[in-house]
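Supplementary notes for students who missed Thursday's class. We covered one full example, reproduced here. Read the sequence, then the structure, then the short commentary at the end.
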Amino acid sequence: MRILSVNLAAPQPAATREAEGGLTGINKIPTTSRVPVTVPGPSKGGLAGDSIFLPAHGGPDQAVYAYARGDYEWWQAELGRDLRNGFFGENLTVEGLDVCEALIGERWRIGPDLVVQATSARIPCATFQGQMGEPQWVKRFTEHGHPGTYLRVAEPGEVGEGDEITVVHRPDHDMTIAKMFRIWTTEQEHLPSLLEISDVPERLRARALERLSR
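Structure (token representation):
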């Protein structure tokens, strides 16, 4: 299990009006440099040199976004086109680890000193639709059910291409990122089971309670 590439934003015009300055950082480009990773403030990313322009993105619980190269390869076959690392907006493209089977609260050590913790699934949006230029992309991405995982920074450090990933903690529950994604998007009748997990981010917990109160 290792990091195939570390990807940083190449800002470009956004498809949504909410983006600060009319820009988006979804289009990320691999870098060969080692990159410091720290706990970010609200609407900021955890990787030095990355850019975030939407207020709902970034922050401590979405400090880093990881996506598996194996899922890219599935989409390449499905779409009949090449998809380079970083094109889906992930900071870390990984190999040998099914990031969607990570448990909420699971921790990974990356390289010698960085430790991150899985928090939630990536939810597709209009910006992602614009990046892909594929009909019904949000629906198709949701139906496939492999969204990648957001990570919080448990122990700051640096990350670089080729760093090994070691799972150092697995919580005692069965709520994977993939299962969380299904509950949030297509199986909302199971929202109460999500609230039982202590490591669910507070912002997500509040939104789940709001949905249940309707």
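Commentary. Helices lie at 69-79, 126-132, 137-144, 177-185, 191-195, 202-213. Residues 2-213 form a domain with the M1 Pyruvate Kinase; Domain 3 fold (CATH 2.40.33.20). If anything here is unclear, bring it to office hours.
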